[in-house]
Amino acid sequence: MEQPAATPLIAEPKRGKRLTIRNNETMAGWLFVSPMLIGVTILVLLPILATLALSFADWNFVQGWNGIHWIGFDNFSKLLDDPAFTRSVRNNLVFLLAVPAYMIVSMVLAILIDRYVYWKGFFKVAYFMPYISSIVAVAIVWQVLFQPSYGPINEMLKAIGIDNPPMWIADPKFALTSIIMITVWVSIGFNLIIYIAGLQSIPRDLYEAADIDGANAWVKFARITFPLLSPTSFFLLVTGIISSFKVFDIIAVMTQGGPIGSTSLMVWYLYDQAFNNLKIGYSSSVAVVLFLFVLLITAGQWIAQKKWVNY
Amino acid sequence: MPEQLSRLDWRKLVVTAVLFALSILFLLPFFWMLVTSFKIENDVFVYPIQWIPKQWNAIANYKEVWFGDYPFYVYYLNSIKVGVITTLISCATASLAAYGFSKVRFKASGYLFVIVLATYMVPNQAILVPQFILYRNIGLFDSLFGLIIIGSFSVLGTFMLRQFFMGIHQEYIESAKIDGAGHFRAFWSIAMPLVKPAVATYAILRFIWTWNDYQNPLIFLRTDKLYTIPLAMQKFTSMSGEFYSLIMAAAVSAIVPLLVVFIIGQRSVIDGIALGGVKG
Predict the structure, then answer these.
(1) Transmembrane region positions (chain B) (predicted)?
(2) Is residue B168 within 8 Å of B191, Cβ to Cβ?
(3) What is the tens place of the pLDDT at every residue in A141-164?
(4) Is residue A274 part of a domain?
(5) A227, A294, B64, B135 — which has fewest CB within 10 A?
(6) Which run of H or E residues covers position B11?
(7) Which residues span the domain enclosing A39?
């Protein structure tokens, strides 16, 4: 063990021993972290560097290593002129709307479940079901429910008098909205649980004091609950935005980016370029842009956190 | 009885009723899936929806899904194998690293931790291509072992467990070492028992995430008989096209084991998620 507080006078004669102890500590430290370190280095760190390098190359799988051409920033300038890519970026930005949508619903539900209901446990589990279920199974079920001509949802809409219900994921105008709706449905459970945890950390006596002052429910929400939930909201906003840039499964299963590119997100476009079109260099440049987006958001988080969050 | 009733808060009752109505929106798709899996194909889209099947075909449907052309029992075994082994290895690597980063004082510790943590920021799709090339070249492509390895080094798990290890007083570790135990003894006999609940929570979450993982099997597997459940489901759906009762039977089969794990570990899953604020 290191003893930083030890005076030099005592430390001096023990110097040799302390050195070996320190060496042992160092050795033990490296041993403990080395499995993780080796795994992360090989499976993550090196691939990150490789992605950066490949984004400057023109290459596809079939050509072998000799087929690599280094083309500088060409991939990136091509991206700017690629309507399918800019459409994916735009879709990603539209997709961000899902985040505040499920956050608001979750916050309201969390406040109600935390204070104003019987059977709390039931509600937590019920709203949480979509989150733990396999997203593939969920996507397939919704695909069938949304089936345009004879699916249950449109049958119900027709039954209540809507003659031309939307075609949902088959309609380019509605497909992204449908995916956003399902994402909201899936994400509420997670956000709800975090909000309930956040609510439980608000001291009760604040509300008691407000009661004594005669504050009504709205004032208590606006002056106590909402501000004191701001760290939670902020955390959910940032993780929500970042995870919206990682949405893949639901697109791959339900729409494959279609119809006509209306649900293509950056991650889908990256996958499509790499594994369907075999354009490795080009898809790596998409990966770099994706990474830059996430980096920007994370950097923004550091700055914003200081400004807006009340602790 | 009347006394009890009067103690029921009417406002609370109304809110409960409203939220219950809303929760139907969350449960109904699952219920529809279950009911449909029991029906004969012709009844699937009959409107108004038959919430109780008129003609039961449950046994034939499930038999077809489990032992037909796409035998789900094979995919189940794959998923269980991958899920269990990934969870075990991941818990081991994560708790070792978490202990190393919190309880052993060595010089590089801080830098190493920041580097490891920084990799978490990178969307995993951004490194799929190099991982794919790597796997092709070292012979891990298209094998369950490769799939297990890719899920076995979790930065998130390390971060989560480190929080708990930091909560253990350093004196416990020091006194064990004064008694002559090395770090490994201290880790195994002192630290691990203390963080057992946290490791259990992480294990359940890791199992659920691995079970649900679609992306990695999609990229790293080719052979049909190696498929895990989510990938098999998707292939099954695109193959059996219009047989929705079968597809729903497959979906039910995919979700039920998770539901069991979730219900058993419900408290620790919900608390764990709340505590770590973690996301698959």
Answers:
(1) 12-35, 73-99, 111-133, 145-165, 186-209, 243-264
(2) yes
(3) 888 888 888 888 888 888 888 878
(4) no
(5) A227
(6) helix B10-36
(7) 1-54
